Amino acid sequence: MTIRDVATRPYPDQKPGTSGLRKKVRVFQQENYAANFIQSVFDVVDGRDTLVIGGDGRYFNREVIQIAIRMAAANGFTRSIVGRGGILSTPAASHLIRLRKATGGLILSASHNPGGPDEDFGIKYNGSNGGPATEKVTDAIYLRTKQIDRYRIVDADEIDLDTIGETRVGDMAVEIVDSVADYAELMESLFDFAAIREMIAGGFTLSFDAMHAVTGPYATEILERRLGAAAGTVQNGVPLRDFGGHHPDPNLVHAHELYERMMGEGAPDFGAASDGDGDRNLIIGRGIFVSPSDSLAVLAANAHLAPAYAGGIAGIARSMPTSQAADRVAEALGIGLFETPTGWKFFGNLLDAGLVTICGEESAGTGSNHVREKDGVWAVLLWLNILASRKQSVAEILQEHWARFGRNYYARHDYEALPVDKAEAVVGGLREKLDRLAGIDVNGLRIASADDFSYLDQTDQSLSRHQGLRVLFEDGSRIVFRLSGTGTEGATLRVYLERYEAAGGTLGLDVGDALKPLIDAAEALAGIKTHTGRERPDVVT
Fold first, then answer.
1. Closest to 371 measured CA to CA, from 348, 349, 399
2. Tens of pLDDT along 326-340?
3. How many angstroms separate the CA atoms of 230 and 518, rounded?
4. DSSP H helical segments within 284-419, as ranges?
5. Which residues belong to the active site?
6. pLDDT at residue 488 greater than cutoff 70
7. Other CB atoms closer than 10 Å to residue 257's CB: what's the count?
């Protein structure tokens, strides 16, 4: 085995965001760019036992996997476990890390961002608990990227990624595994597959849009083969390097064909979609869209209907911008509710400590303690389990939920690819006047308080500051302003709007109509049009 130390130079832009390092493919194709980041990970993390490697199949995945395998061998790992074809959904990778007691894993994905030679790529490191690296680790990785002067790699032929089996690169075993089997077995252990099969056999119909992304093989195996859904239930089920030229984000803009199918005549009973790496979900019933925040609340309120959660759940965690619908479920169940910054890494400590069982983010991510990532297929299966148990439609379940807990009208407005200075002008200008907002009226709404959200982790006492600007009104409404860390170009400004209507109130309003006063208040407070020139958001979810 020949190990080479290759001289390199630092790149200044390798700071991981909420879910690893994401850049355009052409950035990653710069000399040593990917190798620098991978070596920085290896230089920082402890342990050299087993490394899980996989990704969502997007453009440049295979090339970086080959590099990562040879670098892992050079850096002393004893075994690499790689999904066949380089494919591993993010939740499946998390499960595999936990199942095989690995040191950690490299997940190659830019999640819901588009793929292709001119689009996006990403690398994320997950630790031994299966969850995204903590801020302490990602800060150390970033520091190392600014100092790196060499990386280590083995001279070896490329590995056959498409054949299950074991080979060696230097002293390291390389195991190519079925990407789906272990994850599918986990799902079958959590849910009442017999009840779901019976429901489907009885005429229940569903449609799942895999968006030419990673969940195609998982959904086909589970929904069609194991649960008996008709062939063709899974649409766009073959992962493509460019996701078929589409944006694999399961929202009403990019999954509009599914939405139109579910709102049209002869719609299936249930519709769902997942994103590029399989950690997000979209849920639509016949004639009704389920917001991610409502989905989290409904899943938490009904989780006990699934075998894995029959004894109840320990608590619920939600990201701060996610609506407060789950808070009311937690209160009714007498369990803890934790409000964290955006980023699944913040849920990991709570899950590991046994303080929560179910977690969710408004950006269409929900999951539980079965892994340490959000999990799109898991959310779909829990919904199916609930439907099979309650024998009601999605609309009926939502209406009963609102009648019991009240309704949080909610939407997120995204202003994408803004010039960074203009996005920062919006947030910076609002931040400067936060401490003067309490008690004033904006568009007929009185502000109760305003702050820049900070989070103190109860498990390790770490403090995260500047996690989003909150404006809270006396009637329980909220507006949150936040710059997102998931894009690869410019800046994305997210504006979260929430109005609460108590049980017995007006629960059937159109969401846009219900939120119109808050939309106008957000513009009055932040001056988005003035600072950015944008007349409207690019995406509304």
1. 348
2. 999 999 999 999 999
3. 44
4. 292-302, 325-333, 345-352, 376-390, 394-405
5. 111
6. no
7. 15
